[in-house]
Amino acid sequence: MKKLLPLIFLLSLSCNIEQNIEIQWAEGFPQDFTTHNKIIMVDFYGKPCTPCERMFKETFSVKDVIQFCEKNFDCYKLMAWANENKNYQIKNRVYEVPTNIFFNKEGEEIERLTGFIQPEKFYKELIRIYQGKNTYLILKNNLKEDPNNQEIIYELAIREARIGRKGDKESQKLWKRLANVSEPATYKHDYALLNYYTGILWKNENPDSLIQLMEKIKDFDFNVDGYKTVVDYYRSKDNNELEIKYYKKYSDLVYDKKSVDEKFLKFLNGYALRMSEFNINIPDALEKIDFVVSNLPDSFSNYEKAEILYSKAEILIKSDQNNEALELIKQCLKLLPDNEYLIEKKNGLEKIVP
Q1: What is the pTM of this model?
Q2: Residue 260 neighbours by CB distance under 10 Å
């Protein structure tokens, strides 16, 4: 449901939005880290960018966050996608906004936080970073001292994968290293290979190695990320036949387990919505999305719940069950009352429903 807009949540931080003070931002990127006596925070933002706007309106405007930043950080903000800032964006591997990167006076990255973060969580993260607890930089330094430590390689590889994207060379080097130092047929060895092969796909190599690995392991929990990668690969190649084939195959494996784990429910939802777009496997998609709807976790946001209900509505429309679809769209609007796309969809259905 690409056109749904995220909700604006109410703040629950104990302190109120501060109207009279604000973070003193410097524009641009720091040119000389050594002149700073504080940790440097650079906020890479974009326009238009709803999560960026929310960070400034809902998180950077809270008194505790403002006071902690002013006391402990030198704060910069940089328009990530501006042509004059492209070198900073590429060098720092900023692929989404907002991204807040924290540097020491040597110019080393200490940690980064991405996406919109509620003020309570952001405040706790600021404290953790200031205190130097379990940061990206600490992991990198620990690995230099103990280069074959599997736990450190594993944790750092996960961090690098979050920083970059699938196939990012830094995470790929670490997954390969972990595969080399771990015992064959162990979880860490296979998990490292899974992530390594997953990364390779984003470099336009075929998915055979990943598929063979998953067939060999046959571990449901382990393989779900791989399932999605294979499907995404064929989608990126516009190979609809193989995308549908593997989406159906892997969704069957997920569905047969009847797991209510969030990522498995999201995988089934993705399958159902994609089948509605192709107008294929509709009865199967309806059965699977029914399972998802019946097991919606309370932890899902209103947006996530509406997205799943919308998927079922789309499938019902393909099945000529417009009355039921309209009722689901109305449920979506109770969750996202101001969403223009849903309002338009509801109005359209009301014209054809008796």
Answers
A1: 0.63
A2: 13
